[in-house]
């Protein structure tokens, strides 16, 4: 989506009102959106001042990350406008009640979701780049493909429909452990420095760590 279209919708505006503010006709805005005409430099500067955004955003096709950045910028602005204070209280260990003031941001939950989505999108971009290098230029492309396929299989696992409640609970418990095992493996294999780990504690994570260490599969400073 072109940036101008996304930004106008994001700010709940209309093309007619935008045209009025820029002293142009609505058809000119339509031409910009369809790319029949580029946005003149003077109007890009006017748009930048109007929305307090960099001019580059308005004429380009936005990436997913850029859309999230713009959404977060908008949410931060309206958070500043819509946040409010409330008086709350807590009871200390002696049973004495204390009052304090805290801020409520009605957009906090959505912002947290946006930050999480941005983090995921950036990880996906890095993964795409790494996979491209390995699959098309690396010597281990067949192994990389197999790892990726097996990982996707695990991520897409669903419990069979014919399980009863107890069996479904057992399946979910084992699936959660399998996911945790994969997460731990990837954490250990991705360590790039000295890691403190309690090797005396007997559990799966420590056994996995010692096994990887035994076969010299960890990058660790001596």
What would the keywords be for this entry?
222 residues; mainly alpha; two-stranded antiparallel sheet; 10 helices; 7% strand; extended
Instruction: Give the CA-based shape.
Output: extended
Q: For the terminal residues, how far apart are their CA atoms?
A: 51 Å
Name the beta content range. Answer: 5-15%
Largest sheet: 2 strands, antiparallel
Strand order of the largest sheet: 1-2
Tally of helical segments:
10
Number of strands: 2
Rg for CA atoms: 26 Å
Task: State the helicity in percent bands.
Answer: 55-70%
The succession of helices and strands, N to C, reads HHHHHHEEHHHH
* Unreliable runs: none
- Kindly report the average pLDDT value: 87
Structural class: mainly alpha
Ordered list of secondary-structure elements with their pairings:
Layout: H1 3-10, H2 15-22, H3 26-34, H4 41-51, H5 56-59, H6 64-82, E1 84-91, E2 97-104, H7 108-137, H8 141-155, H9 165-189, H10 204-214
Antiparallel strand pairs: 1-2
Helix pairs in contact: 1-6, 2-3, 6-7, 7-8, 9-10
Question: Can you put this structure into words, describing what you see?
Answer:
It contains ten helices and two strands, in the order H-H-H-H-H-H-E-E-H-H-H-H. It is mainly alpha-helical and 222 residues long. Strands 1-2 form a two-stranded antiparallel sheet. A hairpin with a 5-residue loop joins strand 1 (84-91) and strand 2 (97-104). The chain is extended. The model has no long low-confidence stretch (mean pLDDT 87).
């Amino acid at each position: 989506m072109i940036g101008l279209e996304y930004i106008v919708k994001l700010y709940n505006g209309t093309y007619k009102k935008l045209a009025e503010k820029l002293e142009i006709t609505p058809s000119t805005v339509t031409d910009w959106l369809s790319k029949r005409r580029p946005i003149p430099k003077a109007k890009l500067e006017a748009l930048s001042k109007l929305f307090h955004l960099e001019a580059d955003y308005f004429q380009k096709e936005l990436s997913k990350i850029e859309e999230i950045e713009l959404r977060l910028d908008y949410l931060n602005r309206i958070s500043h406008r819509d946040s409010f204070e409330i008086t709350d209280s807590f009871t200390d260990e002696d049973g004495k009640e204390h009052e304090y003031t805290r801020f409520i941001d009605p957009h906090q939950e959505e912002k947290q979701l946006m930050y999480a989505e941005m983090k995921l999108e950036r990880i996906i971009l890095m993964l795409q780049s790494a996979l491209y290098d390995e699959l098309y230029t690396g010597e281990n492309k067949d192994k990389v493909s197999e790892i990726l396929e097996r990982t996707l299989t695990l991520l897409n696992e669903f419990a069979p429909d014919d399980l009863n409640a107890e069996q479904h609970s057992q399946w979910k418990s084992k699936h959660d452990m399998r996911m945790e095992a994969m997460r731990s493996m990837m954490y250990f294999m991705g360590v790039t420095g000295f890691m403190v780990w309690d090797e005396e504690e007997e559990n799966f994570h420590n056994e996995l760590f010692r096994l990887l260490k035994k076969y010299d599969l960890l990058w660790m400073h001596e």
